[in-house]
Every structure is written in structure tokens, then in C-alpha cells.
Amino acid sequence: MTKLTDLTIAEAREGLRDKSFSARELTQAHLAAIETANEALNAYVLPTPERALEMAKASDARLKKGEGGTLEGIPLGIKDLFCTKGFRTTACSHILDGFTPTYESTVTANLWAEGAVMLGKLNNDEFAMGSSNETSYYGPVINPWQRRGSNAKLVPGGSSGGSSAAVAARLCMGATATDTGGSIRQPAAVTGTVGIKPTYGRCSRWGIVAFASSLDQAGPIARTVEDAAILLQVMASHDPKDTTSVDMKVPDYEAAVGKGVKGLTIGIPKEYRVPGMAPEIEALWQKGVEWLKDAGAKIKEVSLPHTKYALPSYYIVAPAEASSNLARYDGVRYGLREKGSDVTSMYENTRAAGFGQEVKRRILIGTYVLSAGYYDAYYLKAQKVRTLIKRDFDSAFEEVDAILTPTTPGPAFALGEKSGDPVEMYLNDIFTVTVNMAGLPGMSVPAGLSSEGTPLGLQLIGKPFDEETLFRVGRVIEAAAGPLAKPHDWWSKAA
Amino acid sequence: MSVDRATVRRIARLARLAITEEEAGRLEQELSGILDWVAQLDEIDTSAVEPMTRVAAMTMKKRKDEVTDGFCAADILKNAPQVDDGYFVVPKVVE
Question: A133 lies in a domain?
């Protein structure tokens, strides 16, 4: 029999309904896996086994009566950016030391209302600022994948590195994640998992620790396109508590998954063929084109001329909004407080001790670009560039139904390999960040292995609120690529 | 070099971040590097472009002007580093 932790969410739901196993057994299998793996992978910053077993017990009771929600008894991991009532939520920052919310984020509340089980809180880059999960106060997460013939520790991508690593290593069936510049899709790509950032406004941001409010969106990371559809279906909702969440019916994503791509036109943006692009990334992209052609899609070259300006404008907008959002951490209402001779030095000392290097760098950039006399030259300029980026997509979408690109410029890199130069690290988001700037939905699907034997992903970009097409196209790529081999288990402690 | 040491200090003060001399030196390099890199946006003429405000046309939602939340002082104070008698405690502000 397949190990319980290897099942997909779709398979586990059937098993639970058929009573092949109980929610308790399914949860226990995952808790045992976390217990043996977490020391090596550091994916969970707070496992919550007691809560998980309590929730599983309640799921079993509902399942016994023939009741139960869409995710009844399905054990999930929750990124530490989501506030969970009664469970420490720190965004993996020292400044939120011990913060225990008295409320639940809307996205996680939606999951629990449909019967999902919380296994624990997952590691991430501090305040979701990073592309490698190396900026977490709780230390880096290690990618379960390793290069062929090497045991060098690789990063799981970021900022949702705990989510991607936990899903890839079978430490949960799916995970919540958030994406401001690529933080769902990039980690999914380098761990061989599926990640979707829905359209801005599709998921409520209420109760998610804010990074850059005009860019942040929640979404799932899972092992299959179908599982990602099942999770997003539950996570998405209109929420009066977030005025940017849209009052629109959530479509049946699960039903969209199997619909195929016949009759669809897929765009290939020529500007994504960046100078110095790795030949294996180029080849993978071409393979994706062939797969979609074979499945009956039409392919068309499109132009997104402002692509190269997305990343620099992002590094104005995101730090500006972050510096404003992070002003609330002042040592008064929650988290860390350091002593000072007066109230200002208390603020300054608290923030100096509480924030890590990358967060400080972004707060300072943000403060600079928003400071007197610079607003028009930086923030306003960047928001105008966003309009141009959005227009590029609008005209492309007059001709095509979705756009296919690589997700990342390369496979997972080693710990410490790119932490020297901030701009070099930022370049990891070169293919993903445009999507956030335009507010569009984007999905990464595993498409093959690099020459190093580690996963690579392809990204699909959709029209606003058209996640359904992404699920259709994503499923076709997933099927054509075939299942990736499972990463070899080097991380479990001997029982 | 876009920012000098004095600017780094001024910005850090505005952001309420205490920084050491060593950090100020490193930040001077890093912030200048990032700002020089974003300067490529100057290539684009945006004089006739409106700033982006939203993804899809949507009228701003307004709710009824009613009290929907509150009366949870204990919840609000629960995570504070220092409280006294229903108040947040901070170092003395007024002489």
C-alpha cells in the first residue's frame, strides 16, 4: 500500500470517505514524518501536534456521520505569515517574539471551516522578504532535493520555503503560502511542487502579516495541479474585512482541471528570453511549447515590452509599502521590546534588535523613496510603470488565453551562494515579479529536472480572475512532464 | 554613489532604526547599489501615464457606518510587552 504521506489530497479524500483509513491515522503519519525530518529540514517553526490530533478527531466524528467539508481530515501546514488564533505567529521575525494572535486569518478560517487539520506553522523568509528562506529568524530551511552525487545543502526557494520543502518532503499534504514577488511560484519551482498565486483580490489578506499590501496574495503549494485547485477553492473568498478582496463567485476550480487546452491560444513573450538565459531553461520552455501544441493548443509569440522594468519598479513599490506596514512594530503593542532612555530610543533599539539585515535594508530603501521630495521620482514613477506593465499584458491577452514562461532563471542554489549581493538575489524573481505588479494570477508547475538532477518549473500567467485556465493548462503540462521522481530521503532520522 | 553616510543616518532616524557605524558604512554601499539599479526607470517617459491603482475596475466598497467590533481590550493588550491597569506602558513621553 502507498504510504499515507505519499497520497495526494484528492486520493486521501477518497480514502477517508471509504474509511480505508481515519483522519487520525493520516494526521499521525504526517506528525511522525515531521518528528523525524524537521531537525534536518527546519521546515516547521512550530509543529502543533496536539491541535492536529484534536482536529483530526473531530474530522473522524464528522466523517463517521457521513458529514464533513471539502478538506475534511486533510493535514496541512500553515506559513507563519498567517495569524492562527492561540498559536504563535511571528512572520519568522524576532520582532514578533511570542506573538500569539487572538484572531484567525480569513484564509485559514476558511480551511478549518471545511475540515482541514493544522499540523503546524511553517518557516519563511523574515516578513516574506527573501528568495531563499535564508533570512528567517529561525534559520534556513533545507530543500529536500539535492544535486546528483552531492550532499550540498540547497535552498528551498523563498519566501515560502517552509511550505515548499514540507510539501516536497511529504511533511504535509499541502500548505498555505503567500506571494508578493514570486514567493509561492519560485519555491514551488525549485522543489518540484505546484504553486499558484491567484489574482490580487481573490483571497482575503485579512490576518496575514502585511509586507507590501498592493502586491501580497495568498495561495496554496501542493504536489499536483488538482490538489492546488482543491485548496485554492477553499482559500479564496470575498471578505468584507479586506476591502481589496473581490465580491465575485469563486469558480469550480476542480472542474476546470481536466478540461484540456484544445482551442486555447498560449502566448510566448519574447522579452522573457533574457540575455544569458541558461540553455537548459530555454530548452525546458521549448518543451513546454511542444507539449501544449501536442495537446491541441495554438502558440503565439507576444510582446511585453516593459518586462525589464518590472523588477526595478518592484524594488521601489515593495520596500515603500513595507516600510509603511512595518512601522507598527514599535515595541508597544506586541512582540519584542528593548530598553531605551526615552520613547524614541526604545523604538530605535527595539527595531534594531528585532529586524534582520534584509528587512532593515528594505525599510530604509522604502523610507528613502517615500521621504520628502522623492515620492514623485520613485513611488509615483514606479506605480506609473506598473500601468505600462499592466497595459502590456492587457494587449497580449487580446490575442492569447494564457502566457507560458520559465518560473525561475535556474534550479535551486546552495545555501550562502547568493546572499552576498542583494541585487543578485533579487534577480531570482525576474520572471515572477511582473505578475504581481500587474495583479494577475500565476502558477508554477514542475516540468522536469535540471542537469544537476533538481527540479525546474514552468510558469503560466492568466487573465485577471481566470485561474481556471491556469489549472487547465497546468494539468496538461503536469501530465506531459510525467511525475517527477521523489527526492531521495536523506533527511529522516533513524526511527 | 546615490546616498552618502549622512543620508543613511537621516533615513535610519526617520525609520526609527538604531544603526551602528559599521552598519551605516555597509548600508551606504548597499542602498546606493539598489538605487543606482532602479535608476534605469528614468529611461521610460511616464509623463502621460496614470499610476496604477487596481487590477480590475472596481468601485470602492463602503460599509455601513456602524460599530462592528470592539469591547475586547483584554485581547488587544494580551501581547503587549508591558501593560498596567488596561493601558500600554511606554517610557515617559511628557516631561
Answer: yes
